[in-house]
Amino acid sequence: MDTVRLKAYAKINLGLDVIRKREDGYHEVRMIMQTIGLYDKISINPTNNPSIKVKTNLHYLPTDKNNLVYKAAALMKETYQIKDGVYIHLEKRIPVAAGMAGGSTDAATTLYGMNRLFHLKLSNEELLKLAVQIGADVPYCVMRGTALSEGIGEILTPLPPFPSCHVLIVKPNINVSTKFVYENLHLDSSTNHPDIDGIMKHIKEQDLYGASKLFGNVLETVTEKEYPIINDIKTRMLENGAIVSLMSGSGPTVFGLFDDIKTAEKAFYDFKVSPLGKQVYLTNLFQPDANKFV
Ligand code: ATP
């Protein structure tokens, strides 16, 4: 059996709304998700002993069952009674704990990789059922592209591809706990909910500017209050000519969209030398080929 090598792509949220807190403690969300060209690299090798071994370039990440790559491989092994073990190498490039679903996309990609390596011939629908057992964002990371995500993240509706543009990613040197953000989100009549339906309407019309005007993330109110640097980055992106800038997920990563590469590159170099950004990337949207996993 050959080594399987795959790219695990990050996501940004073009819109993120929280509808309510459910009785079971989960939050019901409505989010517009978009895959971008920033990725981790995953290679999976079969081994003769039954164990799962994970190695990664980031020494502080877990390599046991607490790594989502391990969890995904273990779920596949158990569900399909795979006797062989695997050696997985994970090269992280997506900022960690940053609101870009890094761990979830690694898990989704491992599901694809195990499917291919062991010739399981599972459909996307079967992979989606496994994905939801790992985490709320993992099903979207199996689907990828432009999509509406509802429920706790497991109800997915594909949308027409978002109009192509350049994406600047800036992650400041702070760590934000997703748990902290949700615990400090207090929804009331003054909450400014983004117009998710309006964004979808403009996406269907392929109207980049119209959609961008409506972008919003209800979690920004919590994170920006605690970490003013997020607002500083957003402001600087707009000063640098971004069409829109927004925090992704529960942060602290901020993204900006640009329709002109020269402006985007200028902004990229500005952030590269600025103390505001610890990790800075310039990339594009990524729209997957429905029949092919890259
Ligand atoms: P989300 O956007 O879904 O909220 P995130 O970007 O905030 O995700 P991750 O990068 O997925 O967060 O990581 C959150 C935590 O999960 C990390 O602190 C890390 O300890 C753990 N983790 C487990 N597996 C992975 C992985 N493969 N990559 C990154 N983090 C992982």
From TrEMBL:
GO biological process: isopentenyl diphosphate biosynthetic process, methylerythritol 4-phosphate pathway; terpenoid biosynthetic process
EC number(s) from the headed UniProt entry: 2.7.1.148
Recorded catalytic activity of this chain's protein: 4-CDP-2-C-methyl-D-erythritol + ATP = 4-CDP-2-C-methyl-D-erythritol 2-phosphate + ADP + H(+)
Segments forming domain GHMP kinase N-terminal: 67-145
Gene Ontology terms for molecular function: 4-(cytidine 5'-diphospho)-2-C-methyl-D-erythritol kinase activity; ATP binding
Keyword terms: ATP-binding, Isoprene biosynthesis, Kinase, Nucleotide-binding, Transferase
Pathway: Isoprenoid biosynthesis; isopentenyl diphosphate biosynthesis via DXP pathway; isopentenyl diphosphate from 1-deoxy-D-xylulose 5-phosphate: step 3/6
Active site per UniProt: K11, D137
Binding residues for ATP: P95, V96, A97, A98, G99, M100, A101, G102, G103, S104, T105
Highest taxon of the lineage: Bacteria
Residue ranges occupied by any GHMP kinase C-terminal domain in the UniProt entry: 203-267
Family label: Belongs to the GHMP kinase family. IspE subfamily.
HAMAP family xref list: IspE
Functional note: Catalyzes the phosphorylation of the position 2 hydroxy group of 4-diphosphocytidyl-2C-methyl-D-erythritol.
Protein name per UniProt: 4-diphosphocytidyl-2-C-methyl-D-erythritol kinase
Organism, as annotated: Anaerocolumna aminovalerica
Name of encoding gene: ispE
